[in-house]
Every structure is written in structure tokens, then in C-alpha cells.
């Protein structure tokens, strides 16, 4: 079965019999095929042999010499059997991680080995908690400083933040106090890491804006939203822990809570041993005399109790204060544009440049006027009442041009060309009026 699997090509694993050559990730893996082969050569085989190769490889990469003679390697790996060292060095040479210079009888490390060292560097680090998030954040921040940031790194970091958000949300929804406290500890550690990476994220967004890299800027902003969503979970943790505190029960006047009992029970290795000998003890009845019961009842009746609250009448009704009904009004730009079109109509104008009708004021006002122009002649809006219907019934039509150019305006430097033309009916009325005059 293993031999048959090795004989299959990469394309044979897909339904259509062809690899997804148009995918970016497939192209990146194909480009880094030598690195995959080197990793496969180092990590293929039994676990003990893989650990031996990795140990020798990491030791070799830590040696300060650029060229290594065989005597140097024998002295450095004196604890290793010679046949085992020869086996590992042969595998490293075949994987092109070591280069052998036959004329000088020395070994040298290849650039491929340096790249592979970057992949295996987490093996030399302590297995700290949240090392996965720390490694992704370090890769993004370091790649940005070196100018080698790739969108895939932002994708991986965003996916990890989403997984952490789901994990913390499940802990909050569980309602378990111990689950909440464990998740809260990890949340605080992740929060510190994310806050330290905020400056790098802002620098990435600013650099992407300066370079005009819209894709990288979009990914960085999406990553910022995922980071903000994760930061907003602090209040949810506080509310969940407060709810758990309210549900905690204190056992009598001892000060011991159910949380303390549960924590103690979790530390007991064999809970069944607590019941040893419990059933062997006989039942001891407690006899109480009548006068003792009477004394207890008298003391209970004579004990001072707080007076119950007396019933209070509802307050008298009062009339509601007077108020004003605020009605939204359209911006004055529509009335101003209709007044301008009315003046052109009264003056008998047939065609006017588009700039006077659009420009003026701020950029937002000019944008709003440009959005009003498609209303001219709109058949669906012509039947409406109010300013929108009056705008649609104006005897003018907008004609945009494909040309663009500079305009003389304080807020807009560049604009598409266009004209406003009177309708055929209005043009005919204007011609008839001129002929009569």
C-alpha cells in the first residue's frame, strides 16, 4: 500500500486528474519544491532516526566555521558512533543541505540549509504557552521590518485570531467557572501579545497606503478588525466571571464555598476512598426534651426582626410635557440645483457645461449634486410628489463624457467632462419663442 501511494503523482489525488495550477498556494509550493524535498529527506523514516538527523543538522548550523573538515566534525560529534555520523552526513549531502568540496576535503553549508533552518527554528525554543500566536505575530512584524511581508502571513494570523475568538466564546458559553478561569488566563496572555503587535499593524497599514498596495492594506485592516473583536471580549469574560461568582454557594458560616470544595475534590486522586468506613458506623439518634424545644421556640419568637415595609400608594398621574416632532429635511443642494436649472430654462438655454451645476462648496456637496443628476428624466421618480419628483420632471438631461480633466475648484482638482442638455420639447419651445420674437 505504501509503495502504491509513493508511485502516485501529485495530480492523481485530484478529482479531475489535474493539479490546481491557477491557485497561488499551489504555485508557491511548486516554486519551493527543493525546500519540501529537503524537509522530507530530513524527517522521513523512524522517529529515532529523524531526531538524530535533526540534532546533527541543528548542531552543524550552530558551528561558526564556514568550512568544516571531517576531523572537526569527528571532534564535535565524538559522542556519536562513526557509522551513525556517516549515515546522517550522507543523507544531508543527498538532500543538498551540505556541499562536499573534494579538492579541499571540507564540508560547507548550502543556502537551502539556511532556509530549512528557518523552518526548524521553533524546535530549539521552549514549549511556551501561546507559542503559535507569538510565532505568527513575530513573523508578521519581522517580515514588515525586512520588507518581505506576504499576504499569506496576514491570512494565517487572521485565521489564528478567529480560532482563538471561537475558543474563548465557547468558554464563555459553557458557564463553567474553572473553564472560564483557564480561558481567561490564556486570553490575558494573548491580549498582551496582540497589544504589542498593534504598532506593527499600524505601520503595515501606513506603508501599504504609501505604496498603493490595496490588497495588503485591505488584509491589514481586516486583521485589525479581528484584533479589535478579540479585545472586546474582555468585558464578556468579566460578566461571565461575575455571574459565576453570584452562583457560588457558601457552606454555612465556615467561609468555604462550592468552588473550594470542587478544587479540593479535583486534587483527590481516588475519590472512592472517601467513602471507606462510612457505612460501618451505626446511626446515633439524638433525643431532645420538650423544655429544650420550648426554649428554642421562645427565643425565636422574641428575636428582633426587621419591620416589613408598608404598602405605599402609587403616585398621582401627571400630564406628559409638550414636545416637538422633528421631521427630516432634504439637504438644500437639491433646491439650489433646481433653482439653477429653472434659471437656465427661463433664459432659454439649450446646453450648459456640467461643472457649474456640480462644483461649489465642499467635496461632499459636489458628490451629492453629482448623485442627483441621474434623477433627471427618471421615469419611476417622475410620478412622485415633493422635491424628488420635481427634480425628475425637470426638462434637462445629463450627458457624461469619457474625457476627464482639471477643474478650477478649491476642493476638486479632477473631474469627468459632461454637459446638461435641454429636452427636445424644451428646445422646441425655446426655438418657437425665439422665432416669435
From TrEMBL:
Coiled coil (UniProt feature): 180-211
Name assigned to this protein: Uncharacterized protein
Keywords of this entry: Coiled coil
Comp. bias intervals (Basic and acidic residues): 301-312
Positions of region (Disordered): 301-320
Keyword Coiled coil carried by entry: yes
Superkingdom of source: Bacteria
Amino acid at each position: 500500500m505504501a509503495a502504491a501511494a509513493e508511485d502516485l503523482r501529485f495530480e492523481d489525488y485530484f478529482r479531475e486528474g489535474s493539479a490546481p495550477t491557477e491557485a497561488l498556494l499551489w504555485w508557491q509550493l511548486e516554486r519551493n519544491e527543493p525546500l519540501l524535498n529537503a524537509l522530507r529527506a530530513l524527517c522521513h523514516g523512524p522517529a529515532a532516526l529523524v531526531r538524530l538527523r535533526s540534532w546533527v543538522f541543528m548542531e552543524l548550523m550552530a558551528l561558526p566555521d564556514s568550512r568544516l573538515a571531517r576531523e572537526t566534525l569527528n571532534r564535535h560529534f565524538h559522542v556519536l558512533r562513526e557509522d551513525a555520523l556517516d549515515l546522517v552526513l550522507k543523507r544531508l549531502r543527498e538532500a543538498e543541505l551540505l556541499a562536499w568540496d573534494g579538492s579541499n576535503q571540507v564540508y560547507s553549508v548550502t543556502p537551502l540549509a539556511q532556509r530549512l533552518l528557518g523552518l526548524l527554528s521553533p524546535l530549539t525554543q521552549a514549549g511556551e504557552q501561546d507559542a503559535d500566536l507569538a510565532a505568527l505575530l513575530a513573523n508578521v512584524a519581522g517580515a514588515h521590518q525586512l520588507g518581505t511581508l506576504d499576504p499569506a502571513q496576514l491570512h494565517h494570523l487572521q485565521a489564528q485570531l478567529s480560532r482563538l475568538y471561537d475558543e474563548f466564546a465557547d468558554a464563555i458559553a459553557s458557564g463553567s467557572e474553572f473553564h472560564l478561569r483557564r480561558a481567561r488566563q490564556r486570553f490575558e496572555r494573548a491580549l498582551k501579545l496582540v497589544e504589542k503587535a498593534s504598532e506593527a499593524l499600524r505601520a503595515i497599514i501606513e506603508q501599504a497606503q504609501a505604496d498603493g498596495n490595496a490588497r495588503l492594506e485591505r488584509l491589514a485592516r481586516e486583521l485589525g478588525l479581528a484584533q479589535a473583536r478579540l479585545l472586546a471580549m474582555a468585558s464578556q469574560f468579566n460578566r461571565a466571571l461575575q455571574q459565576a461568582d453570584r452562583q457560588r454557594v457558601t457552606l454555612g458560616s465556615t467561609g468555604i464555598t462550592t468552588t473550594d470544595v470542587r478544587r479540593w475534590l479535583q486534587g483527590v486522586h481516588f475519590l472512592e476512598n472517601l467513602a471507606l468506613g462510612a457505612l460501618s458506623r451505626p446511626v446515633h439518634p439524638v433525643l431532645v426534651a420538650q423544655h429544650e424545644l420550648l426554649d428554642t421556640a421562645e427565643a425565636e419568637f422574641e428575636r428582633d426582626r426587621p419591620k416589613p415595609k408598608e404598602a405605599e400608594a402609587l403616585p398621582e398621574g401627571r400630564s406628559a410635557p409638550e414636545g416637538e416632532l422633528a421631521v427630516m429635511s432634504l439637504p438644500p443642494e437639491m433646491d439650489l440645483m433646481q433653482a439653477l436649472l429653472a434659471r437656465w430654462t427661463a433664459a432659454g438655454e439649450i446646453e450648459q457645461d456640467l461643472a457649474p451645476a456640480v462644483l461649489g462648496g465642499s467635496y461632499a456637496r459636489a458628490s451629492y449634486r453629482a448623485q442627483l443628476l441621474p434623477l433627471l428624466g427618471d421615469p419611476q421618480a417622475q410620478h412622485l410628489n415633493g422635491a424628488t419628483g420635481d427634480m425628475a420632471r425637470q426638462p434637462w438631461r445629463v450627458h457624461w463624457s469619457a474625457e476627464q480633466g482639471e477643474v478650477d475648484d478649491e476642493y476638486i482638482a479632477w473631474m469627468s467632462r459632461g454637459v446638461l442638455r435641454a429636452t427636445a420639447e424644451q428646445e422646441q419651445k425655446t426655438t418657437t419663442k425665439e422665432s416669435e420674437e
